[in-house]
Each structure stands twice: as C-alpha cells, then as structure tokens.
Design a protein that fits this description.
279 residues, MetI-like fold, 79% helix, globular, MetI-like_sf, cell membrane, transmembrane helix, transmembrane, membrane
Length: 279
C-alpha cells in the first residue's frame, strides 16, 4: 500500500495539466511569449541590417540608438523629459477617459442623454487634432494646460463610441429576464449591462490609450521647454538622428506597455468569457 501511494504521488508531481505544456515539452506560456516577441525581434534584426545597408547612413542602427539613450540616462536628461511627458499623458488620459465613460454610459442607458450628447460628439469627433492646436494655444497658452487639454479631448471619442456600442449590444432578453426577477435599475446595470458591455469597453480603452500617446506627440511638437517632444525638436536642430529615433522608440514602447496593461485588466475582469480565442 505504501509503495502504491508513493508511486501515485510521484506520478502526480511529474504530470502537468495538458494545457500548460506544449507538444515540444516547453510550457505554453513560454512558447506564447516567444511567438509574441518574434515580430519585434525580426524588426530589430532587419533594422540593424538595413542601417548597415539599404537604409543608408542617415538611419542609425539600434545599437547607436541604445548608445544615445544610455548617454542621456547617465546625464539624467532622459528621465526629466520622460517624467514630464508621462505626467501629461496620465493627467490627460485620466480626465478624457472619465469623460468618455460618463458620456457613453449616459447615452447608452438613457435615450434622452443620447439625443442631447450624440450630435455634438459626432461633430467634434470629425475635427482633426492638428486643427485644434492653434485654437487651444489661443485659449490655454503654450504651457502644460494646452498640452493636457489636447490629450484630454483625444480619448473621449473612442471611449464614448465603444461604451455606447457595448451597452446597446446587450441582449434584450437578458434585460427582460432580469427585470422579471425583480432587479432594480442599479442592480440591472451592475449585474447584467456592465458585464455584457465590458469586452467592448476594453476595446475602446485600448484605442483611447493609443490615441492619447498620439495626441502627446502632436502637443509636444509645439513650443515646450521639457518633454519627449522637446528632446526630438532639439535633436532635429542638431541633426541627431539617433536621438530622434530614440524618442520614436520610447513612444512605441510606452504605447505597447499601456496596451499590455489593458490586456492584463481584460484577463482579470473578463476571465468568465468563453469566446473563441484562436487556434
């Protein structure tokens, strides 16, 4: 009996669930991470080879961009600009996303709110960010207020549209069934409408965060004493292409990190979803 128990415990300790180990014997998470990184690695390799060949001498290699970044890190200049830009994005996105959520939820839940809000939102949505720059400079000056205001406006529209679409896509039969069980308006929204609309809301959140970084680029390309945009403009004046590419890489990495953050939130709050995830 003891020998049989020992053998059973040994088998249990060695055997892994089939969904955690791939056919090659490696953990599926490790395989997935390698696949997700392969595209970026291929781009870096092509960039490095192209900088030494068909891209010409005006395009710095990734190694040169890293060297320029290390020089700015040692002087502390990079952190100063990065913190200033991050502060603007965080403030702008927080306010803009909150406004978009409120407007989208009000329009989705109340027809009166939709009738009042929808037309102005659609009109403003068609205005490009570049067209708002001179107006915002006149209104707010060239300080941080102008840049934050431009970032605030950018994420409102994708959040509004996706929240509205998410709420309106909830199956009416679920709502009627909940009402027949005696759920009040608050409980109906919390237990039925919000969970059903969350996937669409997260799509809007991913779009809003990306657009927020794009708005930062537009805002900081104007007159600014500190920020990633200032660093790029300064590098342009002195023909420092390595620093220009460094700022572009920082923008790209920042956007990627915010997207990963939303994906983590999706995994946390949408763990109940059993939809098709590819093969």
């Amino acid at each position: 009996m003891t020998l049989q128990l020992d053998r059973t415990e040994k088998d249990v300790s060695v055997t892994r669930p089939p969904d955690e180990v791939g056919s090659s014997g490696l953990p599926r998470r490790l395989i997935r991470l390698a696949r997700q990184s392969s595209g970026l690695v291929a781009i870096l390799v092509l960039w490095q080879l192209g900088a030494r060949g068909w891209l010409g001498t005006t395009t710095p290699a990734p190694s040169e961009v890293l060297e320029a970044g290390w020089d700015l890190i040692k002087t502390g200049e990079l952190w100063q600009h990065l913190l200033a830009s991050t502060r603007r994005v965080v403030i702008g996105l927080s306010i803009g996303i909150a406004i978009g959520l409120v407007l989208g939820a009000a329009a989705g839940l109340l027809r009166v709110a939709e009738d009042i809000v929808n037309a102005p939102i659609q009109v403003l949505r068609m205005m490009p960010a570049l067209a708002l720059v001179p107006v915002f400079i006149i209104w707010f000056g060239i300080g941080d207020s102008f840049k934050i205001a431009l970032i605030i406006v950018a994420p409102i529209f994708p959040i509004y549209l996706n929240v509205l679409a998410g709420i309106r896509s909830v199956d009416r039969r679920l709502v009627e069934a909940a009402q027949s069980l005696g759920l009040g308006r608050f409980e109906l929204v919390r237990r039925i409408v919000l969970p059903a609309a969350l996937p669409q809301i997260f799509v809007g959140l991913r779009q809003a965060l990306g657009i927020g970084w794009l708005a930062l680029v537009v805002a900081e390309m104007q007159t600014t004493p500190v920020g990633l945009g200032f660093l790029m403009n300064d590098a342009k004046e002195f023909l420092r292409t390595d620093q220009i590419f460094l700022v572009l890489v920082i923008y790209a990495i920042s956007g990627l990190l915010t997207d990963v953050f939303v994906r983590i939130l999706e995994h946390r709050f949408l763990s109940w979803r059993t939809g098709f995830e590819g093969q």
